[in-house]
Each structure stands twice: as structure tokens, then as C-alpha cells.
Amino acid sequence: MIGISSTFDGGHIDIVDAKDPDDIRLALADDNASDFKQWFYFRLTGARDRDCTIRIVNAEDANTSRDLVGMPAPWADYQAVASYDRETWLRVPTVLEGDALTIRLTPKRDSVYVAAFAPYPLERQYRFTAKALRSPRASLTVLGQSVEGRDIDMLQFGSPGPNKRACWITTRQHPNETMGPFCVEGIVDRLIDPDDPLARALLDRAVFYVAPNLNPDGSIRGNTRTNAAGINLNRVWSDPSMETSPEIHLVRDAMHETGLDWSLDIHGWNGTHNFLGGPLGLPSLTDKQTALWRRYEAALAQANPDFEVGWPYPGGGPGPGEADLSMSWNYLGEAFDAVALLYELLFKDTAKTPDPLHGWSPARSHRFGLSTLDALYAIIDDLR
Q1: What's the pTM?
Q2: Any idea which residues carry the catalytic annotation?
Q3: Domains in the chain: ranges and CATH
């Protein structure tokens, strides 16, 4: 008997009809307190060696980018991922037919998981945190709790000192953008490697603060864009609330306590190139901020061919002084006169360096994190 389920960490889908393996009909589900939708993650059982056609009938209602212009369509050049063990995720044939996203697969086992991108469960975050804390370079502060009472963790690497820069890394404001924490794993794995000379050099010059999940409630619920209160956390940085967006209120307070010279906020998007956003349109934008951003992106391209220099901000970007300061990297760049950066990693694959089997993947996100420290090293001495 065919079964579809999603009542697990990060699972999310509505079932329309799942009786016939050749015509399984599902629907994208709204976030718990808003109508954002794009993420899906479900388990298919009872279909071993059967040709299955799964149609997500309302795929064209995906709306993560409704408040931004010039963003790519979510399902063009897209393939879903599937896994038997939830460790190895492979791309499966996927095509948009009318309003429906059609996924075809023939499972070789009694249970297979299908998702929009490789999921990152909270249990993995807890194991990753425990691994990091085995390093003498690492410590943990719980900044406070989310709307539903989950801890907002901050990992610290190194200790503050005279002339040391404060470097902040955040991710998963939008819970479906799971490529972010995989990238953070790469950054942290390198920071705690005692045999990595570049990591040692960076820690001589800087202290790193890492918030690996700013939306744990949305993550476990399988939300696409919002926290448990229905708030898009990357639109409240200029005025966060302890009632509805405590996650941002807490981390922003911590940043003002530590200071901030460089920051990186890691997201995911529907393009086919990894995107680096810099200090565009800040009211008090300086030539130094712009020059350091350009040096950083050149160093990142040198370190990792999965990144290309020269892609413009989608939709053209803000004009002079018109940056939206409710968004994290804009707020931080303006508030701290800092080099505040944004990554948009991929749900799909790179157009220039494709991998037909895996597409953009957890492993490639991890390597992007490793390369991040090469790029930061190129500018670290000039951040002050």
C-alpha cells in the first residue's frame, strides 16, 4: 500500500490523493502562520520497484520571492532530491507541467525520502555543535529562546583581544534554505582544525561568532520562509520584537555587545550561480566597504570555481541610499560601518560547473564554507 508521510523534523507536504503510484498528487503546504510556500519534504513507502509519478499540483503557487523583483522562477532547470538513508541525496527527474511539478522515480527500497533540497534536521545541528565544542577553540552561549522556546545558540571561536576583529556568521533565517548550515559546517570544520595554518592565522586576528540556526521553530515545522509567529525574520532587523521575532532581537543585541567588523548571512535562492551580495545602497556607504567587498569576491572566485564574479544583484539592486535596512546584511553594514555580506547558494545547480548526479549539494556547500575563509583572509587585515 502506498504511503506518504511528513510528520517528522522538517517534513512538509499536503496529500491530495496517494492511492495510485502512477498518479500521486500532493500540494505545497503553507507555513504554519503565513501563506509562504515552496519547501517540501516527505517519505514515500510501499512503492518498491514501482514506477511512481508524483505531482505537486500547486507548485506554481510557490511564492518565496514575492517581495523581490527580478528573481528566477523556482522550478526552471530544477530537479528534486531523493534519498534512502537521508545522508546521500541524488537528483531525480523533475519537470514543470502546467501548474504541477512532476517527479518521477522507481524506488529500489520500501522507503524513500523526497525533498526540495537536502534537509538539515535539528538533530544534525545538535551533533555538529557537540563536535565543535570538543575543540579548545570553541565555546557556546545560548542567547535566549525562540517563539516556541527553542535555544538560539551562538558558537564562539577564539577570544577577543586588542585589535582583534569581530566576525559574525548567521544562517537559516529562512528555514528551507538548508544549504546554509551545510556551508557553516565547512567554515567551522576549518576553524577547529588544529593543522590548518590559515585558520590559525585568522584566529590570531579575529574572533568568530556563529549562529547556526536563527529559526529553529520554522526549521522543525518545515516552514519555507517564516518563524512560528509567521514573521519573515530577514525583514525585521531594523526593529525586531521580543514577542514575535525574539530570534533576531537576541542575536542583534549580541552583535552590538561584541561589535562587528565583518559579517556573512547565508541564504539559498533559485538561480543557477552562487551569488554574493555586498554593501549596495547603504545610506552611509564608503569606498572602503565597496573595495573590500570586491577584493573578497575576487578571492572567493580564485579559491572556488563554483563562484563567479560579476553577477548583478537581482532586479538591479537598490539605488544610492535606498538599501532595505530591515534585511540583515544591509542593517549590519550600516549600523557597524562593516563589510556585511550575503551568500545566496543554490537549490538547483551551477550553470558553469554542473554536477548532473547531485546538483548543488551539501558537500559543495561545505566546500564553499571552506573557501569562505580563504576569501576572508584576503581582507582580514584591512577590516579596521
Answers
A1: 0.98
A2: 344
A3: 3-115 (2.60.40.3120), 122-382 (3.40.630.10)
